[in-house]
Amino acid sequence: MIDPISAIAVASSAFTLIKKGFAAGREIESMTGDLSKWMGAISDVKQAQNNSKNPPIFKKLFFNSSIEKEAMDAFAAKKKADEMEEELRNWINLTHGPNSWSDLLKMQAKIRKQRQEMIYAQQEKIKSILNVSGIILATIVFAGAMVGLTYFIFIGLQERA
Questions:
Q1: What is the CB-side half-sphere exposure of residue 151 using CA atoms within 13 A?
Q2: Does residue 1 sit in helix, strand or coil?
């Protein structure tokens, strides 16, 4: 599961470096590492918010209070990410023209797609495994309770006879 607090911390750190780079007159091309790091972290924040909207069944049943905290963390991180994105868009539009922002969005879309294919698919697989494991565990406990109940009823009937 993506931690939105950690992701926004990484995004803030990269964003600070980007702002310093722009202030020093560096070109976007020379800051691709920082931009990639920022975009990846922003993508993680957005994915965390999406994940918080649909938590696993097992988590809903047993850890309901943490779901609300995760949703609030994801919401706050998303708002912070939106602010950074707006500031970066304004800065790039002022210093490099609107086509530069379009180029940046294309790069961001490419990075997001790569991350979704690799990381997010793997996380969904883990989420599915946890859901199935929770259901299997609940089924085993229920079946064990039924066997135990049947056993005690059977012994009770034998003792009366």
A1: 6
A2: coil
Of 62, 116, 104, 80, residue with least CA distance to 5? 80
Q: What is the identity of the amino acid at 29? A: E
Q: What angle do CA 145, 126, 10 make, to 5 degrees?
A: 135
List, for residues 52-74, the tens digit of each pLDDT value. 777 666 666 666 667 777 778 88
- Any idea how long the chain is? 161
DSSP structure string for 15-67: HHHHHHHHHTT--GGGGHHHHHHHHHHHHHHHHHHHHHHS--HHHHHH-HHHH
What average pLDDT score do residues 81-93 get? 87
| Mean per-residue pLDDT over the chain, rounded | 81
Check residue 3 and report its DSSP letter. -
Euclidean distance between CA atoms 59 and 51, whole angstroms: 12
| Residue range 77-97: mean pLDDT, rounded | 86
CA distance 79 to 87: 12
The answer to whether the CB of 31 falls within 8 A of the CB of 58 is no
pLDDT reported for residue 60: 61
**Residues 1-54: tens digit of each pLDDT:** 567 888 889 999 999 998 888 778 777 677 778 888 888 888 888 888 877 777
